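FAQ: What does a ligand-bound record look like?

Like this one, built around manganese (II) ion:
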Amino acid sequence: MKAVQVLEPGKINIIERDMPTLERETDVIVKTKAAGICGSDIHIYHGTNAVATYPRVIGHEAVGEVYQVGEAVTNVKVGDRVILEPIEYCGECYACRLGRPNVCEKLKVRGVHSDGGFQEYFIAQSDKLHILGSDIEFTDAVMIEPFSIGAQVCFRGQIAKGEVVLIYGAGPTGLAVLENAKHIGATCIVLDMNENRLAYAKTFGADYTFNPSKVDIKAEVEALTGGMLANVVVDAVGSTKVMADAVYLTSVAGRIVSMGFLDQKAEISMLEVTKKEISIVGSRLQTYQFEKCIEYFKHNEVHLTDLITHKFHFEDVKEAVALIENEPEKVGKIILTF
Ligand code: MN
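The answer part, i.e. the structure of the complex:
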């Protein structure tokens, strides 16, 4: 069978490799149908993902059809349409015992630390597969994983109905946060320097959108909230400046959610954090969000699929990567088909 492998930074190839075989009785082999190219896949290709190891079959947004199941598998059967939950964890460390295995001490992310979904067949532990049902197109189902990242942000920021959420960044992650927060019933203000992205945010249900290079965000948020400010500020950009500014835009008893993945230092006012009792939390990957997210997709309540702009056969992955590198403004989301 064929696979997309990043041999080392800068080298991406279609390789021939053996079919996976069942190793444990809880293993499942899935015939891949579609997979999404994520920013993090491109980072692995560019050598700018600090935690990735090489050579690597990339791809963590993968869906397909169950091809073969181990003897002890009961939750899926041959022919089921499934999505991969792309994390593996020990189940024993502090985080796992606390119900937060996405930050397991021994965490492995498929397509990053172990081989992922950009191959014609992939192996998975049965409990890392979730059934899609028949209503969701495979190509749309690829967006469930990015959507789940937004669900995790809502969990970590404890976003509740009626609260005001300020989201920095209207890329795929910011928009996923927006959609999840709207499902909860929050009022959402979305910021981005790119007017196209703000237009997307509007169609995805943003209550207010602003370009921070054009208006005074503090004044706008104050005016919209009667001086309360935002109950939750989400940094879906990963910017030290956003983190520094966020404490001045967060209400008393508010939360700030960081998604930055670079080892850079933000200067944050201790006074603002203490006097308002602000909680600053990180949000990484997701835990236990897939089933809920699949329900939203089943009921057609998701716009995130509107971001899909291109579909390529996986053997044309180099063309897809070139498009992302050379004409990023044209690319929303690229889906590889198998
Ligand atoms: Mn992703």
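Follow-up question: can I read anything off the structure? Yes, for example: Residues 149-282 form a domain with the Rossmann fold fold (CATH 3.40.50.720).
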